[in-house]
Specification:
Blueprint (H helix, E strand, L loop, with lengths): L1 H28 L5 H36 L1
């Protein structure tokens, strides 16, 4: 009985290790972004942040104009 339980636990541990190895192998085989792609993503993020700031500023200005009209 104890031997069977120990074998079951060992088999479960081996199965977990095999699944972990499969995940590691899949991650290692996944294509990585080229350095120039990383730079492009960073450039796009900066452009997005700048555009977002302009839009927020324009909306704030519209809000101020509407408040002035209502007063």
């Amino acid at each position: 009985m104890r031997v069977a339980m120990a074998e079951d636990r060992a088999a479960e541990a081996i199965a977990r290790i095999e699944r972990a190895l499969a995940r590691i192998e899949a991650a290692a085989a996944a294509p990585r972004a080229a350095p120039d792609q990383d730079a492009e993503v960073q450039r796009l993020r900066q452009a997005h942040a700048a555009l977002r700031g302009k839009v927020e500023g324009a909306i704030a200005q519209i809000d101020r104009l509407l408040e002035h009209e209502e007063a």
